[in-house]
Amino acid sequence: MAEAAKNIGLPYTIECDTDDEREWHSVRQTGIGASEIGAVLGLGGHRSSPLKVYCEKTGQLEPEDLSDVEAVDWGHTMEPVIASVYARRTGRVVVPGRKRRFQVLRSVQHPWAICSLDYWTADNDNSARRPLEIKNVSQFLAEDWVDGPPDYYLAQLQAQLLITEADRGTSAACLGGNRLIWCDVNRDSALIDRIVRAGSQLWDRIQRRTPPDPDGWE
Question: Which of 12, 41, 109, 120 is the right S-S partner for 105, CB 3.0 to 4.6 Å?
Answer without folding.
Answer: 12
